[in-house]
């Protein structure tokens, strides 16, 4: 008759055996070096932040379109406000690209933190954005980061972003 109650002493050994992984699939050299990438906890945090970044970017892009349409309809153009929104979109795009590279294992998450693309909460391990001050998971303050560099051309005073170039109205 099988045991219905698991033996608590066997649980650590079973966990170690499961964590060791399984044999590689057929056709793969078992002695080959495994590509380094983020562990499961970091992959979860990266995917979670990536979903939020994509969602916020869609909302900001929609807001930018509505804002420009409203400014055009009213005949009142505020180039500084548009430039600020474009900088936010550029920052979101840089964060999205960095997180996608980290998820593929091309870039280490620590490198993204060092480049001030994202911040990792020391308490709960959640990943925060470049402009966030507090962790969305535990509410603790994220490490301080310097401001993102602005790219402006001196001749025409236009903001050159990765999405578009906006020139002030005459």
Q: Would you mind describing this structure in some detail?
A:
With 170 residues, the protein is mainly alpha-helical. The chain has one domain (38-166). The chain is built from four helices and four strands, in the order ααααββββ. The strands form two sheets. It has a two-stranded antiparallel sheet with strand order 1-2. Strand 3 (159-160) and strand 4 form a beta hairpin. Mean pLDDT is 79; it is low at 148-163.
Layout of SSEs?
Layout (H helix, E strand, L loop, with lengths): L10 H9 L20 H35 L4 H26 L4 H6 L4 E2 L6 E2 L30 E2 L4 E2 L4
Helix pairs in contact: 2-3
Kindly summarize this structure in a few lines.
This protein has helices at 11-19, 40-74, 79-104, 109-114; strands at 119-120, 127-128, 159-160, 165-166. It is mostly helical and 170 residues long.
What ranges have pLDDT less than 50 throughout 5 or more consecutive residues? 148-163
Counting DSSP H or I runs of 4 or more residues, the number of helices is 4
Q: From the helix content, strand content and strand pairing, which structural class follows?
A: mainly alpha
Order of helices and strands: HHHHEEEE
Distance between the termini: 88 Å
Quaternary: single chain
Search tags:
two-stranded antiparallel ribbon, 4 helices, single chain, mainly alpha, elongated, 170 residues
